[in-house]
Design brief:
The protein is α/β, with parallel strands linked by helices. About 45% of the residues lie in helices and about 20% in strands. The structure holds adenosine-5'-diphosphate and magnesium ion.
Length: about 260
């Protein structure tokens, strides 16, 4: 049975999509069966998996509005080694259309239930907001992976997310927990980053993943080739770190 994880942080540009596609590819590389769900109307995870968001026959939008099943809407991200439930701009409208509907925050959870046995991991790339879309992700997830840059305001920004997770845990999804904080775009030469990294460990203890993802230009270049860095340039430092992170996730899961 698949374990479902949201990659979430309400800030934009912190590395959510990069983490989702590379973790998905890393997990596939170590033999896990993976479904990536793109829950961001920007569709970056879709494009970054080599699937043209404008050409999608069905997307996660259709799944949320129940005009397609996951089995109908998913596609194979061939070179990446995982399945993809894609997104495009249409999804921005779902936010409004869902408001008036029943079970609006549980739609994704219901839709994923029939395919759980087909995967080991389902990874959800969340949009940069604590919206109804993110809420759908959090309501179905077993845990949240939070990518963050070790910068001055990092901790401050985290409190909104932590509060939202607590509320969802209390009211909607009792299994939800933060699986871990992932330090991304890390540059060990910058003293401030080391300091914030230490603060994170002091605050959150073993909720901070051991793996650190370095700032690495190959990870930033990969999306323009429609590939996760892990596939585009497997020997790049950033790619090696993401495969290491995939192994850490598998290991952590075994202990949960
Ligand atoms: P988000 O999904 O949170 O908005 P992205 O994953 O799209 O963030 O990352 C924002 C930008 O930073 C992108 O241009 C991406 O290529 C770049 N980026 C992300 N992680 C790294 C990294 N480890 N090294 C270098 N660039 C990165
Ligand atoms: Mg993104």
């Amino acid at each position: 049975m698949a374990k479902i994880f949201c990659v979430a942080n309400q800030k934009g540009g912190v590395g959510k999509t990069t983490t989702t596609v590379n973790l998905a590819a890393g997990l596939a590389k170590v033999g896990q069966r993976v479904l990536l769900v793109d829950l961001d109307p920007q569709g970056n995870a879709t494009m970054g998996s080599g699937v043209d968001k404008r050409q999608l026959e069905n997307s996660v939008y259709d799944v949320l509005l129940e005009s397609a099943t996951v089995a109908e809407a998913r596609v194979r991200a061939d070179k990446c080694g995982y399945d993809l439930l894609g997104a495009n701009r249409e999804l921005a409208g779902a936010e409004i259309e869902l408001v008036g509907l029943e079970r609006r925050e549980k739609r994704l959870k219901q839709a994923l239930t029939p395919v759980l046995a087909e995967y080991d991991f389902i990874l959800i790339d969340c949009p940069p907001s604590l919206s109804l879309l993110t809420l759908n992700g959090l309501c179905t997830a077993y845990g949240v992976v939070v990518p963050m840059q070790c910068e001055y305001f990092a901790l401050e920004g985290l409190s909104d997310l932590v509060n939202t997770i607590k509320q969802v845990h209390a009211n909607l999804n009792p299994q939800l927990q933060i699986i871990g904080l992932l330090r991304v775009m890390f540059d060990a030469r910058i003293t401030l980053q080391q300091q914030v990294s230490e603060q994170l460990k002091a605050h959150f203890g073993d909720k901070v993943f051991n793996t650190v993802i370095p700032r690495n230009v190959r990870l930033a270049e990969a999306p323009s080739y429609g590939l996760p860095g892990v596939v585009f340039d497997p020997s790049a430092r950033g790619s090696l770190a993401f495969v290491e992170f995939a192994k850490e996730m598998v290991e952590r899961l075994g202990k949960l």
